[in-house]
Amino acid sequence: MGTPGYVIYRYKGFYFLFYGLGVKFIAEIPSDPVELEEYIAAKKEELEGLLEELRRAYGYCSIGDEQDPVRGGELKGNLGDVKFTVSRNWPRDGDAAFFYEIDLEHYIFYVDGEPYFDLRNMPNGDEFCAYLDVDAKPYELPLDSERVRHRYKLPPPPPVATAVLDAYREYSLTSKTSQIHELLDLTSEMRSTEVIRMKIIEVFIGVSTETMSYKNYGLGERTTLFSSSAPPRLIHRVRTMVRAFTGPLIFSESMPRFGDFYNRNQPAFEWIEHGILCLLVVPRLDTENNLPAAVVEL
User: Are 111 and 132 in contact (CB under 8 A)?
Assistant: First the structure.
């Protein structure tokens, strides 16, 4: 039952890769809260032991406070008769039908790189197969209330300081018009080329919203789940996209990449057209106070 794939534990920024069945993987996760905490603690201790063995065997380099035996890359090892790989990077080039992953520090169960289930409220084996739509047997999805309970939910973002909200209230944000085209002094009817531009942008963003997919980096990063600032790679991608789609609709092989070549020291904001269009990249605008905070930062 289930489909084989990579079984991954994420701990201290390392990915521990094994190979196995997803249903067998979730079967080891206790449903009892006390037993779950014991399982998490035991698994962390086991993985810490593997890291220590690798440090003794291969040495290490220091990355911050971490003694990294893989030196930013990956190492292969054996746990009894079981082979495994320890890597600093997500296995995007792995050849497997599914990628099952447990984040031991944030209680997340990922499927194919997407944060799927709350580790504290996992589905049973049949429900798991129904979610993934695998095998011939007609597994049934659980009730809506159970789906909500199983689904991983984003943690609340950090609170916004009162001083920031006070600064926002002091700004004069009133406008004589509520229409964007009037505010920007544009005609209400878009030209045919601009309609095409908008359609291209919609398609591009639609494809890129698989933010955590192992197949591509998309427009998001895992770090945005737990960070108050956007990671450099995300800033680079959004900046490149805005530059491309605010210029002439002429695309060639020489156009800037949307990929991973980026400057880690670039600020989160930049003038696209000085005095007209400024871009600020923030990870989350899903709570009421985050938008005022972004306006103040900009």
Answer: yes
Say if residue 74 is in the same domain as residue 168. Answer: no
Range of the domain at 58: 4-150
Do residues 94 and 200 both lie within one domain?
Answer: no
Residues 12 and 141 in one domain: yes
Closest listed residue to residue 223, CA positions, set 214, 238, 212: 212
Q: Amino acid identity of 232?
A: P
pLDDT of 44 above 90: yes
CA gap 240, 251 in Å, rounded: 13
Q: Under a CB-based contact definition with an 8 Å cutoff, are residues 86 and 14 in contact?
A: yes
157 within some domain: no
Task: Label residue 210 by pLDDT band (50, 70, 90).
Answer: low
Distance from C-alpha of 239 to C-alpha of 265, rounded to nearest angstrom: 14
Question: Is pLDDT of 70 > 50?
Answer: yes
Query: DSSP letter at 54?
Result: H
Nearest to 258 by CA among 273, 277, 245, 271: 245
Number of alpha carbons in the 13 Å side-chain half-sphere of residue 276: 6
Range with lowest mean pLDDT among 92-101, 124-133, 165-174? 92-101
Selected residue with higher pLDDT from 84 and 47: 47
Q: Residue 291 pLDDT > 60, yes or no?
A: yes
Q: How far apart are CA 166 and CA 174, in angstroms?
A: 16
**Domain for residue 102, yes or no?**
yes
